[in-house]
């Protein structure tokens, strides 16, 4: 049996297979009738072509892979969505069931039986994203392919893999396939992300910490721990707990790795490796994804650093400071030069694997006299907002090195710039709201959402389950992230999802 999982760009996948002499053996294997299971790019290579690249695919499935239409939705399609069977097996032995599965891709095989009638026999399930239907899995004879990632789809995905391993041949269906119909709404769920900020404590052990407005040291002067790095537990244990509690994604941010080379930072790689062994939802790793030089003088590119994290088990990498510098260079040159970490990583691993973590801080100004460059981006404090914000006006300035240094760049400039460079998602923090429990910064989220097409993860300030309902009702964020309330067990992930369901927000429960 051959399982070919993958995340990446179509052209890179095909040219790697070609250059390693694997393309023809792969075709021969598939045509030999032995069991094949392709996941994501491992499914896409079965198709005849992709608009992502000029290289041809294996052409086992006679239809092309195309880019999603981004006029009515965020692209990439990222998160948990359904997979509807076209013709259920007579004995109900299909591995795909009514569960939600995890998707992360910008390109897909569009459902178009009129244009590609000979591909119809391959269609196993379809899925709706926005107002487009696409082929979310193919199955015929010895071949099975899923656009979604069973290995990242929690218990449902593990059950699917188990069922396929037991019975890899396509079961016979007695029913004629029922053509899918377009629904009024797609079923992509809103995602709940648990975030762990990781750093070495004063004894050199990696711990999960949590700051208030990015200050992670204990403040209370009277306690014996005053001034020490706040320790909220061990990263792998906490990650496993959040997986078991139903988090849709996990995020591990190495918050001090901008100081040194992460390839020397074996404990962080070990944390990722250990977490990925027992956690079957997507894992984003951030901190120190940049070109760097090891202490022995060996240069390491951001691509190498990211590759080490992907091989250790990360699904996405999150870039902070380096993204700010890259957009500054983009503005100075007026065009992309292909060398930034965002571009080089997206080129090999696909844009969906590149998250940009943004750390904006408010700059308060007098709206009556402000004539600076960010006039169009000014926000006026809401009359129903937190008391200390009412009647004030501000713009959002980007920072680097965990908020330690401010740069002459607004959050809108950064968001648009990283989208141009090829980022696939924005993790939108707020230094002002971080750790305050005052709720997400809705104005900030709406401002960024209005300016980009890629998905946005709302972060910072969650203090109650109602804040999650509010962020999804009042903004178009695709996901919401929290740290402190989950670490302190003030709110359970199940309670958040219960409140969202009660409010009519589609979530995975
Ligand atoms: O610049 O590429 O090395 O990346 C550094 C990464 O580390 C960035 O993603 C940056 O956001 C993060 N970081 C750096 N310093 C800190 C700090 O706290 N001192 N943490 C830090 C950022 C913010 C969120 C937090 C939410 C939710 N953490 O991730 O989890 O605000 O918190 P809440 O729910 O408790 O309010 P680079």
Automatic annotation (TrEMBL):
Belongs to the HisA/HisF family. It catalyses: 5-[(5-phospho-1-deoxy-D-ribulos-1-ylimino)methylamino]-1-(5-phospho-beta-D-ribosyl)imidazole-4-carboxamide + L-glutamine = D-erythro-1-(imidazol-4-yl)glycerol 3-phosphate + 5-amino-1-(5-phospho-beta-D-ribosyl)imidazole-4-carboxamide + L-glutamate + H(+); L-glutamine + H2O = L-glutamate + NH4(+). Keywords: Amino-acid biosynthesis, Glutamine amidotransferase, Histidine biosynthesis, Hydrolase, Lyase. InterPro entries: Aldolase_TIM, Class_I_gatase-like, GATASE, His_biosynth, HisF, IGPS_HisA/HisF, Imidazole-glycPsynth_HisH, RibuloseP-bd_barrel. GO terms for molecular function: glutaminase activity; imidazoleglycerol-phosphate synthase activity; lyase activity. NCBIfam families: IMP_synth_hisH. This is Glutamine amidotransferase domain-containing protein. One of its GO terms (biological process) is L-histidine biosynthetic process. Gene3D superfamilies: 3.40.50.880, Aldolase class I. Pathway: Amino-acid biosynthesis; L-histidine biosynthesis; L-histidine from 5-phospho-alpha-D-ribose 1-diphosphate: step 5/9. Residues 2-154 form the Glutamine amidotransferase domain. The keyword tRNA processing does not apply.
């Amino acid at each position: 049996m051959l399982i070919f999982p993958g995340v990446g760009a179509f052209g890179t996948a095909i040219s790697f297979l070609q250059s390693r002499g694997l393309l023809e053996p792969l075709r021969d294997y598939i045509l030999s009738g032995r069991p094949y299971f392709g996941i994501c790019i491992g499914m896409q290579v079965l198709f005849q072509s992709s608009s992502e690249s000029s290289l041809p695919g294996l052409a086992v499935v006679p239809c092309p892979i195309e880019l999603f239409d981004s006029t009515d939705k965020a692209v990439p399609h990222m998160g948990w969505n359904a997979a509807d069977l076209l013709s259920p097996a007579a004995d109900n032995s299909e591995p795909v069931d009514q569960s939600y599965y995890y998707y992360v891709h910008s390109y897909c095989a569009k459902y178009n039986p009129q244009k590609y009638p000979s591909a119809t026999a391959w269609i196993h399930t379809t899925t709706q994203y926005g107002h487009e239907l696409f082929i979310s899995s193919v199955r015929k004879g010895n071949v099975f392919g899923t656009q979604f990632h069973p290995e990242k789809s929690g218990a449902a995905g593990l059950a699917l893999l188990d069922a396929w391993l037991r019975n890899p041949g396509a079961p016979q269906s007695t029913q004629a396939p029922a053509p899918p119909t377009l629904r009024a709404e797609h079923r992509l769920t809103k995602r709940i992300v648990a975030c762990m900020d990781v750093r070495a404590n004063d004894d050199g052990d990696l711990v999960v910490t949590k700051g208030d407005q990015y200050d992670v040291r204990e403040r209370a002067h009277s306690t014996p721990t005053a001034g020490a790095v706040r320790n909220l537990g061990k990263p792998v244990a906490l990650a496993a707990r959040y997986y078991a509690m139903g988090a849709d994604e996990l995020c591990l941010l190495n918050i001090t790795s901008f100081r040194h080379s992460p390839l020397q930072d074996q404990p962080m790689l070990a944390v990722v490796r250990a977490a990925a062994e027992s956690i079957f939802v997507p894992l984003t790793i951030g901190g120190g994804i940049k070109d760097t030089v090891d202490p022995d003088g060996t240069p390491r590119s951001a691509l190498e650093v990211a590759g080490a994290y992907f091989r250790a088990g990360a699904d996405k990498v999150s870039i902070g400071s380096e993204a700010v510098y890259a957009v500054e260079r983009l503005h100075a040159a007026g065009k992309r030069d292909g060398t930034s970490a965002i571009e080089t990583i997206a080129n090999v691993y696909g844009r969906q694997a590149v998250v940009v973590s943004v750390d904006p801080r408010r700059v308060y100004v007098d709206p009556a006299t402000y004539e600076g460059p960010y006039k169009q981006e000014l926000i006026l404090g809401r009359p129903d907002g937190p008391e200390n914000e009412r009647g004030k006006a501000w713009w959002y300035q980007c920072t680097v090195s965990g908020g330690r240094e401010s740069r002459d760049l607004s959050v809108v400039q950064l968001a648009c710039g990283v989208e141009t460079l090829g980022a696939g998602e924005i993790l939108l923090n707020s230094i002002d709201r971080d750790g305050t429990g005052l709720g997400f910064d809705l104005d900030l989220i709406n401002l960024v959402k209005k300016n980009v097409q890629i998905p946005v993860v709302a972060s910072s300030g969650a203090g109650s389950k109602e804040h999650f309902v509010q962020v999804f009702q009042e903004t178009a964020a695709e996901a919401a992230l929290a740290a402190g309330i989950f670490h302190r067990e003030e709110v359970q992930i199940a309670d958040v999802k219960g409140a969202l369901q009660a409010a009519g927000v589609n979530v995975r429960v």
